Amino acid sequence: MLKLGIVGTAGFFLPGDNTSGTPRNAPGQFQVPLRIPPQLAPKRTDAATDYYEINIRPAQVDILPGKRTTIWGYDGMFPGPTIRARSGRTSIVRQINNLPVETNVHLHGGAVAPEHDGGMHEMIAPGSFREYVYPNNQIASTLWYHDHSMHRTARNVYMGLAGLYLIEDSFEAGLNLPSGEYDVPLMLQDRRFNGDGSFDFPANNHEGVNGDTILVNGVPQPYFRVAQRKYRFRILNASNSCHYELALSNGQAFPHGRRPFLRLPQPMLQIASDGGLLSAPVPRPTIAIAPAERVEVMIDFARYPLGAQIILKNKLGRGTTADVMRFDVTRKATDASAVPAVLRPIPPLDGAVATRNFELSINREGIWVINGLSFDHLRVDAQPKLGSTEIWNVINRSNVPHPFHTHLVMFQILDRNGAKPAAGEAGWKDTANVGPLETVRLIAKFDGFTGKYMFHCHNLHHEDHMMMLQFEVVL
Ligand code: C2O
Ligand code: CU
Ligand code: CU
Predict the structure, then answer these.
(1) Is any atom of ligand 1 closer than 6 Å to the C-beta of 155?
(2) What is the pLDDT of residues 193-215, one digit of tens each?
(3) 3-state secondary structure string across the chain
(4) Per-residue model confidence (pLDDT) at position 221
(5) Distance (Å, whole) CA 147 – CA 236
(6) Residue 10: its pLDDT value, please?
(7) Residue 78 region, left (φ>0) first, then alpha (ψ -120 to 50), else beta?
(8) Which one, of 323, 331, 82, 318, lies nearest residue 217 by Cα?
(9) Ligand 1 within 6 A of CB of 148
């Protein structure tokens, strides 16, 4: 039985560990190289549109040594292929469902028309397809696409239905950030495996799951060979419910027992949040990242000697989940990229014409609710006017965190329990972690489309059971 607000041993979902003596199937740490999801090429393009096609299907892939894992993947891949879109050019993505179950696709962070948003009533039956139109009328940002099936999102994403969708624009390109092979996505997920290599997904879990194996781009605790230069990493927490707190080690893990090169770990330099660049880079010794959030950082490996090995640590992990991956500095490279002192101006939103309260809690039946309600597509829970700005108070009445996500809009965080947000959160966001008993005030302008959109907790188990409402943008 669920008890009010008390979930898990640590109070909320952290990756599990493997100190319990149960057999673990993953390879040792840092045995497998990082893979980068391939970029999807358009089937065709015309003056204003790129046309893509994805075949959603089961596949057998190698995750653990000597075992095959059945996944459900976009083009049979886990994670799915990366789409690189251009701001101002439309993408049309034909999603062909060859799964044994129905699915739909949501572009997380995308401002798209309601009928292309992955709503509950636009499912793709097995054997049929749907074309999603993404106008990309938004600034450069790291978005992602994933399944959004009613009550089934947690299972379907766990099975592998997630991929990256990057929007580029000329403003960002003009900043001369690291690009090409030095612009690297890191999709973080946790999993548990059965002895035969299959994913161990607990059915009917309303709280969340915590895996004992951290995957980066589908690879368990990989190593990544880097050059002595600056890199851009686009970090996405695509876990169902696990939170991470990331930090770099000081490079102590030298192969031949040499002393650490840096006395203190290098902070990561955060340059972007969910919805694009921050106004200026922010040094971050540690970075907390909740499910669905994106954080982009620059790391300068020129500060380390050749041979240095730097571990990306997870300070919330224990045992097998305390380390995420390792960077091995193995070669020299030229570096013409820059660390601009100023990135992209973030015009503060103001002039709110309405304030709404949303209380996050669990009801007596053990159902996660917002304002005591669960999702009803026939009921509209808020009606912002097209072009208007509103303040939303998101009030967590439980003892677990809820990553609160709005479709359609990017918001700004005004304050947390009355205090200004940390610099890394002072940018465009579509997901805000709302900690236990915390109140987060958001401000958003409801622009672009009229119609109905969901907002929900992005712990996928809470989302499925039923921490989701809908707003309707009206004229
Ligand atoms: Cu990524 Cu409605 O969610
Ligand atoms: Cu979304
Ligand atoms: Cu939640």
Answers:
(1) no
(2) 999 999 999 877 888 999 999 99
(3) CCECCECCCCCCCCCCCCCCCCCCCCCCCCCCECCCCCECCCCEECCCEEEEEEEEEEEEECCCCCCCEEEEEECCECCCCEEEEECCCEEEEEEEECCCCCECEEEECCCCCHHHCCCCCCCECCCCEEEEEECCCCCCEEEEEEECCCCCHHHHHHCCCEEEEEEECHHHHCCCCCCHHHEEEEEEEEECECCCCCECCCCCCCCCCCCCEEEECCEECCEEEEECCEEEEEEEECCCCCCEEEEECCCCCCCCCCCCCCCCCCCEEEEEECCEEEEEEEEECCEEECCCCEEEEEEEHHHCCCCCEEEEEECCCCHHHCEEEEEEEEECCCCCCCCCCCCCCCCCCCCCCEEEEEEEEECCCCCEEECCECCCCCCCCECCECCEEEEEEEEECCCCCEEEEECCCCEEEEEECCECCCHHHCCCECEEEECCCCEEEEEEEECCCCEEEEEEECCHHHHHCCCEEEEEEEC
(4) 97
(5) 16
(6) 38
(7) beta
(8) 82
(9) yes
- Six-digit token string for 61: 């892939």
- 146 CB near ligand 1 (under 6 Å): yes
* Terminal alpha carbon distance of the chain: 44
pLDDT in tens, 78-92: 999 999 999 999 999
pTM of this structure: 0.95
Q: ∠220-102-457 over CA atoms, to 5°? A: 60
Measured CA to CA, the distance from residue 366 to residue 92 in angstroms comes to: 40
- From the CA of 469, how far away is ligand 1's center (Å)? 12
For ligand 1, say whether the CB of 405 is within 6 Å of any of its atoms.
Answer: yes
The whole-angstrom separation of Cα 296 and Cα 280 is 12
At 251, which amino acid appears? Answer: G
Q: Is the CB of 407 within 6 Å of ligand 1?
A: yes
Q: Is there a cis peptide before residue 401, judged by omega within 30 degrees of 0?
A: no
465 CA → ligand 1 middle, Å: 14
From the CA of 233, how far away is ligand 3's center (Å)? Answer: 27
CA of 5 to the centre of ligand 3 (A): 10
Alpha-carbon gap, residue 147 to 144, rounded angstroms? 10
Cβ(395) – ligand 1 distance below 6 Å: no
Ligand that lies nearest to the alpha carbon of residue 148, given by its number in the listed order: 1
> How far is the centre of ligand 3, averaged over its atoms, from the C-alpha of 302 (Å)?
40
| Average pLDDT over the chain, rounded to an integer | 93
